[in-house]
């Protein structure tokens, strides 16, 4: 039987990988501009990190985690998201002792056992950013602005930023009681998962995509009407800073995100034309996460976006990606001068020219055909005459024009190019 990639995973092949490289380069460019530093955490962690950090009432923990026992019987989980891992690393390495605020970003694979669909895989990739160590609402806005800057540099305009406040442990319980009271007569309309959430975490019912649950919560009380003074002031400041930067947003009273660690600010970015699965990323504040996983009180705020979903949205918007796989030059040679041609190819590469050639013994015609398939602009042809006279035959594949040229002149040509 032929072995294939497991369901929910996929190979990213050339030339598609060029899109990934391009997006990653833009992310790194913006993160560098905003003074974020890259962090790389383990792909697997102790399961407890996600149970305590994400919350045991979430779909991620209950249904989607890849969890197994290692050879010593310890429960290990492939990371389903990276914020909990970044905060764990921040605490473990006492990075708060360095003074100031930590600003980190990451790009890497995550794992969730869910139904594969367009832009959503079981092994998927996220890029994200975290600001740890401050309650300043400007940090929330910096995260949102940096996210928008990435989209802007990619040429992506068909998106909306939705924002809400989910309160804090002081004011949220009052709202949850009001929400339960409102839903009491609508309990039978809720899906089985939301019936469990009703008792354990009623706020999560607002995030359910099932039609019955959406109808049941349609006229539910708004959480921003129940915010304590601290949360209210924080949210007002966030909105005022967004206005000051001319960042367009919509307040969405149903927005609570799918992770339990969020406090105060929660936001989501949705893309046009993607249908029901239109979120390309989201984030918010998580001031209690560090304590939940055994650290001291350290506030934070962050964002994560899906690479697959972003590529899908960019492609849907008709945005073209620059190609990086086009060779500068292809060297075509006769068998009797292959050593001289081989040496030339490596001299060209040392000079920064992206030079290639056909491996295996092939005719001049077959080599030119391969050069044409690769889309190169220039071909250098070497035979015995060229070696003897120390010249090269240069052919422009776009115009068909050929001319004699020295090696020195060839370097100058590519310096200009």
Verbal overview:
The structure is a single chain. The protein has 417 residues and is α+β, with helices and mostly antiparallel strands. Helix content is 37%, strand content 21%. The protein is built from 15 helices and 16 strands. The strands form three sheets. It has an eight-stranded mixed beta sheet, sandwiched between helices. Strands 13-12-14-15-16 form a five-stranded mixed beta sheet, sandwiched between helices. The model has no long low-confidence stretch (mean pLDDT 93).
Features:
about 425 residues; BirA Bifunctional Protein, domain 2; Rossmann fold; alpha+beta
Q: Strand order across the biggest sheet?
A: 1-5-6-11-10-9-7-8
Our estimate of the beta-strand percent is 15-25%
Highest-level CATH class of the largest domain: Alpha Beta
Number of E-type strands: 16
What structural class do helix, strand and pairing data support?
alpha+beta
- The name of the CATH superfamily of the largest domain reads Bira Bifunctional Protein, Domain 2
Radius of gyration: 28 Å
**Could you name the ranges where pLDDT drops below 50 across 5 or more consecutive residues?**
none
- The total tally of domains equals 2
Helix share, percent: 25-40%
**CATH architecture label name of the largest domain:** 2-Layer Sandwich
The biggest beta sheet, please? 8 strands, mixed
Categorize the overall geometry.
Answer: elongated
Strands, helices and their partners?
Elements: H1 17-33, E1 37-38, E2 44-46, H2 47-54, H3 59-64, E3 67-69, E4 75-78, H4 83-92, E5 102-111, E6 123-132, H5 137-154, E7 159-165, H6 172-183, H7 192-200, H8 211-216, H9 229-244, E8 250-251, E9 263-271, E10 279-285, H10 289-292, E11 300-306, H11 307-316, E12 329-333, H12 338-350, E13 355-357, H13 364-374, E14 378-382, H14 384-389, E15 392-396, E16 402-405, H15 407-416
Helix pairs in contact: 1-5, 5-9
């Amino acid at each position: 039987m032929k072995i294939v990639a497991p369901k929910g995973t996929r190979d990213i092949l050339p030339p598609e990988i060029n899109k990934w490289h391009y997006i990653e380069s833009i992310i790194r460019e913006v993160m560098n501009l905003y003074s974020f530093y890259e962090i790389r955490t383990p792909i697997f962690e102790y399961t407890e990190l996600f149970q305590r950090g994400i919350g045991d009432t979430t779909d991620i923990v209950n249904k989607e985690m890849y969890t197994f026992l290692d050879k010593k019987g310890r429960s290990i989980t492939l990371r389903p998201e990276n914020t909990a891992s970044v905060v764990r690393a921040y605490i473990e390495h006492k990075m708060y002792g360095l003074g100031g605020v930590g600003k980190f970003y990451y790009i890497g694979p995550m794992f969730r056992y869910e139904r594969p669909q367009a832009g959503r895989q079981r092994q998927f990739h996220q890029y994200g950013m975290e600001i740890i160590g401050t309650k300043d609402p400007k940090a929330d806005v910096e995260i949102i602005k940096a996210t928008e800057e990435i989209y802007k540099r990619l040429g992506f305009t068909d998106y909306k930023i939705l924002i809400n406040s989910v309160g804090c442990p002081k004011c949220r319980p009052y709202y949850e009681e009001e929400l339960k009271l409102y839903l009491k007569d609508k309990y039978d309309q809720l899906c089985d998962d939301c019936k469990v959430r009703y008792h354990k975490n009623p706020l999560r019912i607002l995030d359910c995509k099932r039609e019955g649950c959406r109808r049941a919560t349609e006229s539910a009380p708004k959480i921003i009407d129940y915010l304590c003074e601290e949360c209210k002031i924080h949210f007002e400041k966030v909105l005022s800073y967004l206005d000051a930067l001319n960042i367009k947003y919509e307040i969405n009273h149903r927005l609570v995100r799918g992770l339990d660690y969020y406090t105060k600010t929660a936001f989501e970015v949705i893309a046009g034309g993607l249908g029901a699965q239109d979120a390309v990323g989201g984030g918010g504040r998580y001031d209690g996460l560090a304590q939940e996983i055994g650290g001291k009180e350290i506030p934070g705020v962050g964002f994560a976006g899906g690479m697959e979903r972003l590529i899908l949205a960019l492609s849907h918007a008709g945005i073209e990606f620059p190609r990086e796989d086009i060779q500068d030059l292809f060297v075509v040679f006769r068998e009797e001068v292959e050593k001289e041609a081989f040496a030339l190819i490596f001299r060209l590469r040392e000079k920064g020219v992206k030079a290639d050639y056909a491996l295996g013994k092939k005719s001049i015609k077959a080599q030119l055909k391969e050069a044409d398939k690769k889309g190169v602009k220039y071909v250098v042809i070497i035979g015995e005459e060229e070696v003897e006279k120390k010249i090269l035959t240069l052919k422009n594949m776009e115009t068909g024009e050929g001319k004699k040229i020295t090696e020195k002149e060839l370097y100058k040509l590519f310096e200009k190019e």
